[in-house]
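4.2 Preliminary Data

To establish feasibility before requesting continued support, the project team ran the inverse folding procedure on a target of 120 residues. The structure was first converted into the token representation described in Section 3, and no sequence information of any kind was made available to the design step. The complete token record follows.
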């Protein structure tokens, strides 16, 4: 079993910054890919960005140039730096990981989410 725990959410004014963290623990041999997603009230969950185990990143167009994903592979942690925040970034942010276990089984895991609220 693998557990993902996100921290770092909160409330900021437009133009401000936050840094989210996601830590993975449990039966982990390797994490191939991480993803950050978000879901605003009454909207579908959307992909914010991804980072591979080798550090290659992709971003949604709506956050390019404002959000940055970083990886600490030794600690099995990933970070989402949110800069120049806008009210429309308000959402619950979720961490996702594609994990190979020590038993050579592969699975996808989700964190519980952390709330980001941006006021105008």
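Position-by-position output of the design step:
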């Amino acid at each position: 079993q693998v557990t993902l725990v996100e921290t770092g959410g909160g409330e900021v004014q437009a133009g401000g910054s936050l840094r989210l963290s996601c830590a993975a623990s449990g039966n982990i041999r390797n994490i191939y890919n991480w993803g950050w997603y978000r879901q605003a009230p009454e909207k579908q969950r959307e992909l914010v960005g991804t980072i591979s185990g080798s550090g290659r990143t992709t971003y949604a167009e709506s956050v390019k140039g404002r959000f940055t994903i970083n990886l600490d592979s030794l600690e099995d942690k990933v970070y989402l730096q949110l800069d120049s925040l806008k009210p429309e970034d308000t959402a619950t942010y979720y961490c996702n990981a594609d994990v190979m276990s020590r038993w050579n089984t592969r699975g996808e895991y989700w964190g519980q989410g952390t709330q980001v609220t941006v006021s105008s």
